[in-house]
Amino acid sequence: MIEHHGQSRTGIQRPTTPRSVVALVDAASSVERRLVGTWLADNGLAAYVEGSTTPVTQLDLDAGAIATRLVGRRDDPLVVPVRVVWLPGERDGVRRTTFADLALFTNPRKPNRLAQRKLRESADRHLVLTGQPALLSELRANNPEAAALFGNAGTAEPFARAIARAAVVALERAERAVIGDRYKVPRLVAEEILDSPEFLRRLELIADRTGATPHEVHRRAEKGLNELVAAQSRLVSDLFTQAMRPVHASTWKVDTDVSGLTPLRDLNRRYPLVFLPSHRSYVDAFVLGDVLARNDFPPNHVIGGANLSFWPMGPIARRTGTVFIRRSFGDDEVYKAVVEEYFAYLLAKRFNMEWYFEGGRTRTGKLRPPRYGLLNYLAAAVRAERVEDVMLVPVSITYERLNELGAIATEQSGGKKKPEGLTWLARYVRSQQHSAGHVYVRFGTALSARERLTAHGDPLTAPPTIIPLHSADRTPHTPPAEDTAELDDQDVLELERKAVQRLAFEVAVGINTVTPISVNALATLALLGVERALTLGEVRTVLAPVLGYIEKRALPCGELSALRDEQGLAVVLEQLSLAKVVTIYRGGLQPVYSIEAGAHLEAAFYRNSAVHWFVSRAVLELAILAGIGSDSDQLDTGWHEAFRLRDLLKFEFFFPERTEFAEQMTAEMLLIDPEWHNHTRRDTRGADILGKLTESGFVMAHRVVRSFFDAQLVVAERLAARDPADAIDRKRFTEECVAVGKQMLLQQRLHSPESVSTELFTSAMKLADNHGLLEVVADDGADESEAAVAEVAHRRAELIRRRVEFADQLRTISVRITQAATLDPSNLRPR
Fold this sequence. Notes:
Helices cover 49% and strands 10% of the residues. It is α/β, with parallel strands linked by helices.
């Protein structure tokens, strides 16, 4: 309920007038006390008080006063929290704190006493409001354990603190109805968690298990919470938003599909939302935060890495909702318990959250494989019934151009990442002063965590153990339907892990599904697929059939109309030239365009933002070439090759299950040959399929997947040349692949510098590990029998054979990709 100077705007109505009322007054100054007192004297509680017959008691909203004068009352008074709310002056129809307000050395939302004396005569700058009331009996029912402590002749403090917290929460909700949901901030978080009987019991168990004293465990938990909890400030949020907006206002034009926000707003009235955006830039959180604030969403609690907690960004970010979590917990059970409890608390209180589930910014431009740690905590909260449900929101943030790509490319080619700090921040702000076109923000369909976990076989029972934050990556698959009552703890934990992995997969697919194709993605896609410079007309010729393909599939896209005429296309290429991604030679008869020397990684970054839309087409092309070149059944060979390529690329792209993948392949074939279903196996479903592929006007294999297979080939050849007895240090092995990859590039065994990438080599190593090729076969000398020695020798020979065979397979794929490139009309030399 909100009331303003005796004019009641009542949000709830009670059926009967209570016999007595207690007004819990949240006042920080004598001015606020007088304003509340005057309001009460003017019958401000008219909605609850019948004339003058119902007595009203005023108490400070303080645990001590509540413990002394309210907790022990034998009647059942109605408890009504009351507060004075101060409002900034209205500017252009918006009440928001500005830097100009700071010139008065006061916060207009919390003015000092001198300012309050001046503002109390301005009716539009303050109001008295009430939070939702509750009977004392209802408060006892809502806090049974704390009330029981007092009822058993114990202390009144826990129950009094619970009443105080409930009053503050009620006032915060009432205040948001006035100032907007974007100012939803949590209060008294650490205090409430440390008062939780369940959490205290968990700390006692940790103390018993570790041998530490309960006092020491409690002290460490309190320290962890104070380090973890985001102390949000409405003042800092207002000022930080205004400070950061100009930094990027001249850089990007934000393009948001606001239609995706309407269903989210409806869901948010019942469930907490967890926004899971793609992570391409440090600016992602600012862009998304600004979009949500402009649409009056409450601020997200953004889970961030400790690398960004440096001064002054760290303290500011914490006051705008950033939660900095330690990157490594080790065996610190107390900190793990604190993180899990804080996580569940935020969800239970319906605070929205945000994190970048890829575990860091993409270095290649495409979505990285997900990390499961924080999703495990979310699932644990759902299983433990701490929250009814959580809605996961896939978010795509796509930039036409990024001014920080140079540093990303340097890291990809083996350079060291520069640590974040004041110098880094100054460079970053300076780099954002160059125009970079559009940034597209798109919201995918929200996923019910409870529904999707259940669908993927999660038994949704309370976890038998504390789930570690960083769990090992596993290839996700749908778990079998089993009777979980007959499973032991390890089996249940395995089902839970698989369900979380499948959920993460769905989120990634949701992001990709709404990611639009930008003009720069297509322009770089065209130029990366040729080994010569193209005229403007030739670039248009390359793009025309691709634009037709995009239309047929109704793929999401940016302003691609700019690519259909020469003037618009010339502007796009000029902008890429200014970004030093494209070079333009103007000394001849007409300008010709090509990728800037040394800028292939940057160009690939733009292309890769949309590359997932063309992977199925690229796989089909290679499958067609495999089938045509086979001496056996060409159709069977083609299907076998398609599934093999899907397996080889599973750590790079998010492929659907086999049945849906097969449907995708068939749909792609029908785009090439609409009569495909009418062909018989006898005529190989169209002997001229290669001609139809060429007639389609474009070939994608060499443009889309060559760099990934080339990187896999580097890793495969280094493994084939390695002694099976040698242990593999992954960091050093990656450095070796970078060095050898550069040599292979100079020898023209690799086709582009984008293949020499630490990110691609890391994924290739995951693939090799998945195929058992990182195994080490060493003779420990424990058994020197002839049979044991022969067994070791056999295992080594077998590992060498499999490594060599893996490299041979990739060489064969490389040959087919080269063949695909020769079929591409854009690679035909002009006469």
